[in-house]
Amino acid sequence: MKILGIETSCDDTSVALYDSDRGIVENLVSSQADLHHHFGGVVPELASRAHLVNLLPLVDLVFKRQNLQLQQLDGVAVTAGPGLIGALLVGLSTAKAICFAGRLPIVGIHHIEGHILANALAAPLVLPAVVLVVSGGHTEVIHVRGVGRYERLGGTLDDAAGEAFDKSAKLLGLPYPGGPELDRWAGRGRPGRFHFPRALARDPRCVFSFSGLKTAVRLVVEDLPKPLQDQDVADVCCEVQEAITDVLVDRLFEAARHRQVGAVYLAGGVAANSRLRARTTEEAARQGLHFVPLEPIYCTDNAAMIAYAGWCHFVAGHQDDLTLDSFARAALTSWR
Predict the structure, then answer these.
(1) What is the pLDDT confidence band of residue 107, given thresholds at 50, 70 and 90?
(2) Which structural domains are found in the chain, ordered by start?
């Protein structure tokens, strides 16, 4: 079975092909980082317009590289949401056109489900499991009983962890995108020079809060002599990363303990953070839980995860029709 995947939820245009006999055979991503760099963040209207320019050439390239004809596809999977509504509509409209032309089935994939199932591209999933979905727009913990069976255990009360990384990097004058830059600078930092809050550390709920951390970083940066010295930047980055990682790891493994699962996973763009990966690996080994870190390419937005998730839906007999609509916000729910 060959499934074409399309992902345009934010600022990365991506097209992939999943072959059930060979796995992911194509995963093309066109980044808009240079476009949004000048604004220090994603501009939704510009993102939508860039998708219009980039998407069809990527689809054509996948077909050419795989010597593929439209009638050889078994279906199309497309991100339906959540995300930037204009960006999502570009991907959805293109997917519908392909399906209409080829008389192919279509399925809309929840973006969070795509990130969760991306872990199956690294190694077979060990289920049930608890997954920490952490990115610039999401920070939540999901209990995955099986593919298509999800329970949200909790999430952030204000800002996402990825947004806290990005805003802290911006306060320090680091270039966009800030999260990966902060990760690189943190490796040169000296632990212990600063202390940042671990909000809700004693709260029994599975919840997160990062708004206070951003304020604390701003106050520290304002008090430092200007211009900032490299070691100052590195030290702040180190402690920001520790503060965020402490909370994320604590909540992930606390949820795993309560649900008595045999595996934990990371998903989303922040899953590429080196410190979070290392801390999760160490704690999983200590507690005897299965954990395999994702390849970085599958942490950020990509169509490979959408194509694979689509295959899971089609195999289970679940699909949509051409009335499928996009959505900017919606919780991940079970469909099985």
Answers:
(1) very high
(2) 2-116+298-315 (3.30.420.40), 126-293 (3.30.420.40)
